[in-house]
Amino acid sequence: MRLSPPALAVTLALLGASCSPAPAPASPSQPADQPPAPTSDSATEPTAKPEPPAPHPLLGLWQIRMERQHWWPKMVDGSLIVVEDGDGLRGSLTFDQMWGIDPKPVEFERTDPDDLAFTLHFAGDNTLPVVGTLAGGLLSLRAEWTGGAQIDHSVIHGERIEHVRRFEPHSPTAPFAHVADPAEVGIETAALDRMLWYAQNRDSDALVVVKDGRLVCHRTFLRPESVCTTQSITKVVASMAIPFLIEEGKLGRDLDAPMSTWFPEWADDSRRSRITLRHVLTHTTGLASSGTKAMQETSDYLEYARASKTKHEPGTRFAYSNQAIELLTGVVAQVAGEQVDKYVQQRIAEPLGITSWTWSRDNAGNAPAYVGLNSTAIDLARFGEMVANRGRSGDVQVVPEWWFDAIVEPSSVNDEVGLVWWLSRDPAEESIVQTQQRVDLLAASGYPHADRLDALVGRTFETRAAWWTAARARLGDEAVKSLGRYVRYPAVAAEVRGPVSCIYHTGSIGQYLVILPEQGLVVVRQRRGFAEDELERRSVRTDFHDVIDLARTLVR
What is the Cα–Cα distance from 420 to 522, expressed in whole angstroms? Predict the structure, then answer.
């Protein structure tokens, strides 16, 4: 989204967080009933020890609440973390449901409480200078854009963020052998408080954070912890059957075996005969999707998936497909000789000491591969910790290590998906490259304006916003609007390059499993559905789409 209104005024209100360092107490005065310390003729009058400087009043975690009258969404919550380093103050700002903000640090220019100024960064290389003052614990700010149309803004009352509990009073820690204070393992405690604040305000049930095998946060919010549906996170657990089958010599390591090997009725179909196991794992089968609801209304999910017809050429288009992943149910059952839930339970859950996992089955007795796994947040984090350690748990190599190189290889048509897992790169390290191959794929998908991107072929863009600006200039507003009907851009319309720093998967109603392997960090967020009070409030927010950005702020 481009932000370029002419005299656009924004007023923000922030209230000081209780996690800000408290000023050092003054030294007590000398009691009157004690004699003065002895002195000598040569002794000089003792000088008072200088008090350490009070911490800057901006330090800590702040809540932002901004109300905009004529621009959706009307009310935006956010948070600001201010810390101090050798160069002065630095900040990190996050808005909830605010489009177009790049994950760049706040640049403080002046930090006097009576004369504050910093800059925010927005998509399209737009910046927003902010000025304000701090008085009585209330930080009032005013920001102005230039250009575009006037949009009115107004402020509503903010609320103080209390220091949040990071552990439940009687939280079980098994199967983690170690619990650590966040600061001891390099977690920014203010950033963790911010993540917890967002988790609570987005109607989460549980949030678990593990760093280097140590549990640093285990919180529940709406209800006590119990086994919870993982929804589509089931997919990444079920897919872990594949490396075991390869190691046992029952599948080829190249993953290019045709699916007609297990579904012989596909052999005579011109398109389905060319669908491979790799296409299934990368959501590039080309199968038409009639929706998950239709599949769930049948008694046999696998038979429904086997009957699916193709809509596109295999390997030419990314389309997230529950019914394609459900085909793994049939593959595992035929190759392993048992259902995927039993196969994975013996090879992963038992070695990890996971006891909470249960797996639903359809009326035909099949354990689905696309959904159906239930787990506590703690046990799901234990699975994530094994993934972060490239298949190891302690001294045991649970899953073959080579698999963790394979899962982060992007598919040929979408650089944000590997083998089932979603892939994320640090925005500071990624770039966008327009290639002819992606333009050709876009044209093959039926997009009528693909040739307008030919002029961008060979160019590299430092940010997604820069690619978007250039693509918009070539396509025009109307063609840009229609682009979204053909691809998820720019991950499909152009190549996203850079080291993969995060692998993750999500599930409907707000399940998240986020893993940053290099940082040894695992974050699990769970929801168990809707409580009565949620339905009455009508203010339920299940998404936690910026959890990856929040996770990246946790590690110094």
Answer: 18
The model's pLDDT over 312-368, given as tens digits with 9 standing for 90+, comes to 899 988 889 999 999 999 999 999 999 999 999 999 999 999 999 999 999 999 999
Residue 208's pLDDT band, with cuts at 50, 70 and 90, is very high
Tokens 């290019």 sit on residue: 256
User: At residue 397, does pLDDT exceed 80?
Assistant: yes
Q: Are 276 and 255 in contact (CB under 8 A)?
A: yes
Which residue is associated with the tokens 């009157």? 32
Residue 480's alpha-carbon distances to 197, 447, 477, in angstroms, are 36, 11, 5
Q: Hey, what are 427's tokens?
A: 């925005």
Give residue 528's identity as a one-letter amino acid code.
Answer: R
Q: What is the dihedral of CA 320, 413, 369, 323, to 10 degrees?
A: 50
Q: Which one is predicted more confidently, 97 or 413?
A: 413
- 3-state SS assignment for residue 215: strand
Structure tokens at 370: 């696309």
Residue type, 207: L
pLDDT in tens, 490-527: 678 899 999 999 999 999 889 999 999 999 999 999 98
- 3 state SS for 227-293: CEECHHHHHHHHHCHHHHHHHCCCCCCCCCCEHHHCCHHHCCCCCHHHCEHHHHHCCCCCECCCCHH
Residue given tokens 């193709």 in the structure block? 310
What is the rounded distance in angstroms from the CA atom of residue 197 to the CA atom of residue 374?
26
pTM: 0.81
Closest CA to 156 of 231, 75, 212: 75
Give the list of residues 6+ apart from residue 543 with CB closer than 8 angstroms, or none.
Answer: 202, 510
Let me know: does 255 contact 281? Beta carbons within 8 Å: yes
* CA distance readout (Å), 292 to 326, 406, 507: 11, 28, 13
